[in-house]
Amino acid sequence: MTVAKVLADFQERSWDFRGTRLRGLVAGPSGADAVVLLHGLGGAASNWALLAPELARRRRVIALDLPGHGWSAPLPAAPGLGSYADAVAAVVEQERLGAVGLVGHSFGGLVSIRLAVRRPELVRGVVLAATAGISSHTRWAERVLALLGWLQPGRRISPYWKAVAASDALKRLVFGHWFADDPTALSPAAVEAVLRDINLHTDTDSAWRALTQDDPRADLHRVRCPALVLWGASDNQLPLEDAFDFARRLHAPVRVIAKCGHLLIVERPDACLDAIETFLDAADRAALKR
Hints:
Largest sheet: 8 strands, mixed
Helix content: 40-55%
Low-confidence stretches: none
Strand order of the largest sheet: 1-2-4-3-5-6-7-8
Radius of gyration: 17 Å
């Protein structure tokens, strides 16, 4: 099944943030508790295709293209992480969602942390899925991301996602080691969800620069909402030690998914869904008691 069919019930929406057009996909019962899904560096709203429809059965779901990614325009000036968090806040406020759950993958997790610190009244709970910010805050990571930003391998591969989806050899080449524990197990929909919209990006350089310049550890004590740290046991991009560091500083539980790499949201969507829904249900109940 294609991503378009999986996301058939989602509507495309756009919002304005300081003159920048943001785009996202929206579905789920109007007035229900809301969850905002934030993709990783170089990702897009389509990354959530295997999770968003299930979450939208009971919740209002917004899968957002972060600025400079997918169909969202870039921010007008070289931003820090705060600008990305403010963009998400603008969407939440314009949709009149109240306090939302945030689920952030990799770079999106770091944006979620920044939003929870800057605008705590807008966040009722945060799921940090293989979140960047610790190992990525190194000179080595900065050099690697600068090289990848120059080469832009994803943009070159994106038009050929169908060929990648049909070939175990190509899946190993594209997703091996750094991204997936077992690349050959990725479904065609998972490959499409990850690769389809990469060639639409207009500014990922600002995002990786903001990522490498931001160390969230000094501010994690300011996150007041409940948090869950969700990680792949075989993540070779952001090590499991980062998960336990986040959890210790946030006083949050850790859920580790076996035989899963950095792309956990497409590698093991069922396990991710169970963890996310269990956490959000608990966060919603806690919000009602406050």
